[in-house]
């Protein structure tokens, strides 16, 4: 969702905040704003609709200076993306401002209450009521002849909010101070020497500090030049561990690539390698997952694996179902996290919950995790951000080590999730003794070869996809087909295309073609078919033969077929219009390879259509509210 950056220190505050917002613009880009102050001046605001560059132009025309401040880049939920609705928002006095990521669910009731008390509102947002609630607390104290510190007013106001929020507050009457609070969306506090930061995500401040507090729900942070204090909403002191982030800040830059998405596609060999590193032994054929508070008996006696995830992570989860059931021989149920708790799921305390999320802060996935725990399950998180909420609340974590992913359309995080799921499946199978040492060793050796195979795909397929984009960038619809474990990859290919090119695309099980999709096929419809095979796997060969029949159904109706196939497959060349070749691999690892051409195809089509690849309209990177 929205991006927040705040700073207290001795450096020029405006360029620092703008720099941080630029690194967080993937979280929202409908509007942006900044507010700064100093001990000798009132707060000054600048806001602008649209992307961050519009705010920068406003600041060039009307400069501002200060020693502390907060900035915001918005993804609209309440209110249109206008300058009026852009953050920060003032109270009636104009002496304090608020930035907010989240949704205040009871804002209408609070707004009506405040209006009856004489407060006047100028925006359509739910955020503005937070500023007025804080003002109300400060005014009530002043009328009683008391002086209330800003943080106490924030705590009291926050206790009245229902919903999700991460907020930053500054006041002209309490200078050189930022108060931040969290309930739901992420908030991190950066620790420096005589300077302190708040942000909604690590990349916003990583160029300035690697030492961070990750706020928990109900935490309030008070930042001054003297340091950081952490309390709960009752004002009681709380302790949070300092997390040292090892990401290289250069990883969050484009490194010469035209877009972050392309850079992240090409980073996949490294992400796969890093996710595997230290977790497998080719000598013993064992998988080692160290960050687990789950016993061997829990793994051995698990009656089911319940997986919850959203978007791309749900596609990884669905592929993971095939891996886990095939290797560990335990039933797997995959839910959309946004639906899980609303269907009153039947949960067995002997089942294990598995949550998959890139950010570790996805609101729906956290809610699903808490529902699982409430029903007696132990949970495991697959997550890319060390110290994120979902990892802190899990009984075990498999970090993907993909590094920061800036492009809204997930690429390297997805393939790293597939690898993490494969590691989990093998680990579970070993604990349940459903896999032989020989098979385990063979699979782990194949896993160790994946980075080199992805590098080969990137070398050979990128230019082919760029050429295909010239032919198919004007298509109005796409169909993606796959069977078995490859069906979720068809879904992911369709999602990537629709996310960044705005072409309608649909993923479908190839075996269901006769039950509806055949009606869509004509000479204008490109159909992408996942037609890979593992020659050492009988079921895979059978699936391949069935898929060839589906291809013939498409070509018989004049559809244009783009096939993803294994290197050396000459048979398929005779049946389709185009082939994107990938190296061979065991059936359960093929998804990692075959998704890469689909990512490249979506990317080049979007570029050809002139779309904003890194920041597709109406989408944000981390969905931290429901």
From TrEMBL:
<feature type="domain" description="SIS">
    <location>
        <begin position="468"/>
        <end position="616"/>
    </location>
</feature>
<keyword id="KW-0808">Transferase</keyword>
<comment type="subunit">
    <text>Homodimer.</text>
</comment>
<dbReference type="GO" id="GO:0006002">
    <property type="term" value="P:fructose 6-phosphate metabolic process"/>
</dbReference>
<feature type="domain" description="Glutamine amidotransferase type-2">
    <location>
        <begin position="2"/>
        <end position="226"/>
    </location>
</feature>
<dbReference type="InterPro" id="IPR029055">
    <property type="entry name" value="Ntn_hydrolases_N"/>
</dbReference>
<dbReference type="InterPro" id="IPR047084">
    <property type="entry name" value="GFAT_N"/>
</dbReference>
<dbReference type="GO" id="GO:0006047">
    <property type="term" value="P:UDP-N-acetylglucosamine metabolic process"/>
</dbReference>
<dbReference type="InterPro" id="IPR035490">
    <property type="entry name" value="GlmS/FrlB_SIS"/>
</dbReference>
<dbReference type="GO" id="GO:0097367">
    <property type="term" value="F:carbohydrate derivative binding"/>
</dbReference>
<dbReference type="GO" id="GO:0004360">
    <property type="term" value="F:glutamine-fructose-6-phosphate transaminase (isomerizing) activity"/>
</dbReference>
<dbReference type="InterPro" id="IPR001347">
    <property type="entry name" value="SIS_dom"/>
</dbReference>
<feature type="domain" description="SIS">
    <location>
        <begin position="295"/>
        <end position="434"/>
    </location>
</feature>
<keyword id="KW-0032">Aminotransferase</keyword>
<dbReference type="GO" id="GO:0005975">
    <property type="term" value="P:carbohydrate metabolic process"/>
</dbReference>
<feature type="active site" description="For Fru-6P isomerization activity">
    <location>
        <position position="621"/>
    </location>
</feature>
<comment type="function">
    <text>Catalyzes the first step in hexosamine metabolism, converting fructose-6P into glucosamine-6P using glutamine as a nitrogen source.</text>
</comment>
<dbReference type="GO" id="GO:0006487">
    <property type="term" value="P:protein N-linked glycosylation"/>
</dbReference>
<dbReference type="Pfam" id="PF13522">
    <property type="entry name" value="GATase_6"/>
</dbReference>
<feature type="active site" description="Nucleophile; for GATase activity">
    <location>
        <position position="2"/>
    </location>
</feature>
<keyword id="KW-0677">Repeat</keyword>
<dbReference type="GO" id="GO:0005829">
    <property type="term" value="C:cytosol"/>
</dbReference>
<dbReference type="Pfam" id="PF01380">
    <property type="entry name" value="SIS"/>
</dbReference>
<dbReference type="InterPro" id="IPR035466">
    <property type="entry name" value="GlmS/AgaS_SIS"/>
</dbReference>
<keyword id="KW-0315">Glutamine amidotransferase</keyword>
<dbReference type="InterPro" id="IPR005855">
    <property type="entry name" value="GFAT"/>
</dbReference>
<protein>
    <recommendedName>
        <fullName>Glutamine--fructose-6-phosphate aminotransferase [isomerizing]</fullName>
        <ecNumber>2.6.1.16</ecNumber>
    </recommendedName>
</protein>
<dbReference type="InterPro" id="IPR017932">
    <property type="entry name" value="GATase_2_dom"/>
</dbReference>
<keyword id="KW-0963">Cytoplasm</keyword>
<dbReference type="InterPro" id="IPR046348">
    <property type="entry name" value="SIS_dom_sf"/>
</dbReference>
């Amino acid at each position: 969702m929205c991006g927040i950056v705040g700073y207290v220190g001795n450096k020029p505050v405006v360029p620092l905040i703008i720099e941080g917002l630029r690194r967080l613009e993937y979280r929202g880009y409908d509007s942006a704003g900044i507010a700064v102050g100093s001990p000798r001046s009132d707060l000054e605001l600048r806001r602008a609709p649209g992307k961050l560059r519009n705010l920068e132009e406003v600041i060039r025309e009307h400069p501002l200076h200060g020693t502390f401040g907060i900035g915001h880049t918005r993804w609209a939920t309440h209110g249109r993306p206008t300058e009026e609705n852009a953050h920060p928002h003032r109270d009636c006095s104009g002496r304090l401002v608020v930035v907010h990521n989240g949704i205040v669910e009871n804002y209408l009731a609070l707004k009506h209450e405040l209006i009856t008390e004489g407060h006047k509102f100028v925006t359509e947002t739910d955020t503005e009521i937070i500023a007025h609630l804080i003002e109300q607390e400060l005014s009530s104290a002043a009328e009683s002849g008391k002086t209330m510190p800003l943080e106490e007013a924030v705590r009291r106001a926050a206790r009245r909010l229902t919903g999700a929020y991460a907020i930053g507050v500054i006041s002209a009457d309490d200078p050189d101070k930022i108060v931040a609070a969290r309930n739901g969306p992420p908030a991190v506090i950066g620790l420096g020497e005589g300077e302190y930061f708040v942000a909604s995500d690590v990349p916003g401040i990583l160029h300035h500090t690697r030492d961070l507090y990750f706020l928990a729900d109900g935490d309030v942070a008070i930042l001054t030049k003297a340091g950081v204090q952490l309390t709960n909403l009752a004002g009681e002191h709380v302790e949070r561990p300092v997390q040292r982030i090892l990401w290289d800040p250069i990883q969050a830059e484009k490194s010469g690539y035209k877009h972050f998405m392309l850079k992240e596609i090409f980073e996949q060999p490294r992400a796969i390698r890093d996710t595997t590193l230290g977790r497998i032994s080719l000598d013993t054929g064992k998988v080692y997952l160290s960050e687990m508070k789950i016993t061997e008996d829990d793994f051995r006696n698990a009656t089911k694996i319940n997986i919850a995830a959203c978007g791309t992570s749900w596609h990884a989860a669905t592929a993971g179902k095939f891996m886990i059931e095939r290797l560990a021989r335990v039933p797997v149920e995959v839910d959309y996290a946004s639906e899980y708790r609303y269907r009153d799921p039947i949960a067995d305390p002997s089942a294990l919950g598995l949550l998959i999320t890139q950010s570790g802060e996805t609101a729906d996935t956290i809610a699903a995790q808490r529902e699982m725990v409430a029903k007696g399950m132990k949970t495991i998180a697959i997550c890319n951000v060390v110290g994120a909420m979902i990892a802190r609340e899990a009984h075990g974590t498999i970090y993907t080590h993909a590094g920061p992913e800036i492009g809204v359309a997930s690429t390297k995080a997805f393939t790293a999730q597939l690898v993490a799921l494969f590691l989990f499946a093998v680990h579970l199978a070993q604990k349940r003794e459903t896999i032989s040492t020989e098979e385990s060793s063979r699979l782990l050796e194949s896993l160790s070869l994946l980075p080199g195979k992805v590098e080969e795909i990137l070398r050979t397929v990128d230019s082919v996809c760029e050429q295909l984009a010239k032919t198919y960038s004007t298509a109005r619809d796409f169909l993606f087909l796959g069977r078995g474990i490859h069906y979720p990859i068809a879904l992911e290919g369709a999602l990537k295309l629709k996310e960044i090119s705005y072409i309608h695309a649909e993923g479908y099980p190839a075996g269901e073609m006769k039950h509806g999709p055949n009606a869509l096929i004509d000479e204008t419809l490109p159909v992408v078919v996942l037609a890979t095979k593992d020659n050492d796997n009988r079921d895979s060969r059978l699936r391949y033969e069935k898929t060839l029949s589906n291809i013939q159904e498409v070509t018989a109706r004049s559809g244009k077929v783009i096939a993803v196939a294994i290197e050396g497959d000459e048979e398929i060349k005779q049946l389709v219009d185009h082939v994107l070749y990938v190296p061979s691999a065991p059936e359960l690892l093929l998804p990692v390879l075959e998704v890469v051409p689909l990512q490249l195809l979506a990317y080049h089509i979007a570029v050809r259509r002139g779309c904003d690849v890194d920041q597709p309209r109406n989408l944000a990177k981390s969905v931290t509210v429901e």
